[in-house]
Structure prediction request, 207 residues.
Amino acid sequence: MKKMLFVAVLLLGLFCKWPTSVFAADSSWLKLSLWGDIAAAASHNNLNYVHGLDLGIGSTTDHICGVQLDLAYSRVNNEFYGVQTSWIYASAPEFSGVQSSLIDVADQFTGVQWGGLNLANRDFTGVQLGFVNVDLNDFTGVQFSFVNYTEKFTGVQAGFVNVAKDVNGLQLGLVNYTENVYGLQIGLVNVATKNWLPAMIIVNGRF
Prediction:
């Protein structure tokens, strides 16, 4: 736990670039949450804007630039910049930084998702690490897990099963599936349905 907090504080300086138009001048530097809105904050007792630490059992906050660390769940309703972690569930619509829990959920994501199930509903730029990674739109970066899925992929997919509608880069796994590939598929079964060789063992691709 001490190492996790130390890393979180170090990463805070990398990701806390909150625009002044969004950041409230009377934001709190510390928020302690029992559950949801049952919380107290210092120094302005602003429960919606936190620039610093948000700690608790289960926390819901509108805007955070800093570290949100909870036992059960961490939720942000709008922008998050920093490190968000909990045991079970973490979510934020607009996320920049590191998100880590059993289930990670975001809409627009930049950074690292590290958990059991990682879900991004819109564009993702960065790294997904977990057991199942899902991005429902454009993905740029690295997906590494047992099962990886995205619509349009640029980068590296590595896992037992990799699925993407369009691939620009590398799929590395036991089963690789796509419609269009510009790059390589390396695995036991490689399927690119619109390729001139739609199915190959070991290697498939197009440049």
In short: Residues 1-15, 18-22 have pLDDT under 50 and may be disordered.
